[in-house]
Design goal:
Elements (H helix, E strand, L loop, with lengths): L1 E7 L3 H15 L4 E4 L3 H8 L5 H9 L2 E6 L16 H11 L3 E6 L13 H4 L4 E6 L9 E4 L2 E4 L5 H14 L3 E6 L5 H17 L4 E6 H10 L6 E4 L1 H12 L9 E5 L7 E4 L16 H14 L3 H16 L13 H10 L3
Parallel strand pairs: 1-2, 1-3, 3-12, 5-10, 8-9, 8-10
Antiparallel strand pairs: 4-5, 4-11, 6-7, 11-12
Helix pairs in contact: 1-10, 1-12, 6-7, 8-9, 10-11, 11-12
């Protein structure tokens, strides 16, 4: 099986190199092909997603992405390329409409969360975010001192992401919208209700407005099983949920589509340019993203479980990188997880 790797920017190359070291131990039969994306691609080619990168990803069995972005490429000029355009183009080009972000605080790290232990313990939730519609992909423009970003959804787009959420749920799906204000949210709610009643009536369905959901996520996170929401709300809520674990450096994600296309697996954290090149980045979210790749992209459940168990045991044994209040370097964190592989 062939994996396309996209190191990207900032700490991306560092955490990806550590992840490949781990994967060589767990799944030595995989092959890898590296390509440019984000700021690195802009510097080399002038665009954030070169045609060669997209073509390679289309032909791959899975895509492992590290991080994109940084102040070097920040601009408010709509005519200039931005690294994030590479990410959006990859999602659109591969038809990756479903983003899965599991959130499970580990007992060993309960003390690292800004929330009290009694609030976060036994939290085990999944954010299912629609990834190729909404305001991020709508028509954009600026003229005469005004700017606009159009948010739109079709019934078909809502139906397919709703099915992903209901299939993933153990008992409850919480659909998050802003139906008291937005017409797209009213359509969202109607379609989710229709899919629920016709196809998944044994799963409990509740609706929350996004502001209420944001508050409940930090006040009572154990309430949630699966959170289903649209693109921008999901982007914000999943980053908020990351802090339940104590650090955004612990959260993986999977972006999946249909028709047998390769999925993209990436840590939720950004490129962290302030610590790039120092060898202190936390590689654990990248490790766990590789585990999601093995499970959801390559159907290798046993290999995925080996990585996840090794990460858990390393943390229980005291592994702490700087974002978790410790001093472990990227290399030390990698060795600690490798030593726990069984």
């Amino acid at each position: 099986m062939r994996i396309v790797t996209l190191p990207g920017d900032g700490i991306g190359p560092e955490v990806l190199a550590a992840t490949l070291e781990l994967l060589h131990e767990v799944a030595p039969d995989l092959t890898y092909e590296e390509h440019l994306i984000g700021g690195a691609a802009i510097d080399e080619t002038g665009i954030a997603l070169p045609d060669a990168t997209l073509a390679a990803c289309e032909d791959a069995d899975a895509v492992l992405l590290a991080a994109v972005g940084g102040p070097k490429w920040d601009t408010t000029d709509p005519a200039k390329p931005r690294p994030e355009q590479g990410l959006l183009g990859l999602r659109s080009g591969l038809g990756l409409y479903a983003n899965l972000r599991p959130v499970r605080p580990l007992p060993a790290l309960y003390g690292s969360s800004p929330l009290k232990r009694e609030v976060i313990e036994r939290t085990d939730l999944l954010v299912v975010r629609e990834l190729t519609g909404g305001i991020y992909f709508g028509e954009k423009g600026r003229a005469g001192g005004r700017a606009h970003d159009v948010c739109s959804y079709t019934e078909a787009e809502i139906e397919r992401i709703a099915r992903i959420a209901f299939r993933a749920a153990r008992s409850r799906v919480t659909s998050v919208d802003k139906a008291n204000v937005l017409e797209t949210s009213r359509l969202w709610r109607e379609v989710v209700m229709r899919v629920h009643s016709a196809e998944f009536p044994t799963i409990e369905l509740e609706h929350l407005l996004v502001d209420n959901a944001a508050m409940r996520l930090v006040a009572a996170p154990r309430h949630f099983d699966v959170i289903l929401t649209e693109n921008m709300f999901g982007d914000i809520l999943s980053d908020e949920a990351a802090m339940l674990t104590g650090s955004i450096g612990l959260l993986p994600s999977a972006s999946l589509g249909g028709d047998g296309r390769a999925g993209v697996f990436e840590p939720v954290h950004g490129s962290a340019p302030d610590i790039a090149g120092q060898g202190i980045a936390n590689p654990l979210a990248a490790f766990l993203s590789a585990a999601m790749m093995l499970r959801h992209g390559l159907a290798r459940e046993q290999d995925a479980a080996r990585i996840e168990s090794a990460v858990d045991r390393a943390l229980e044994a005291g592994l702490r990188t700087g974002d978790l209040g410790g001093t472990a370097t990227t290399a030390e964190a990698t060795r600690a997880v490798l030593e726990e592989l069984t």
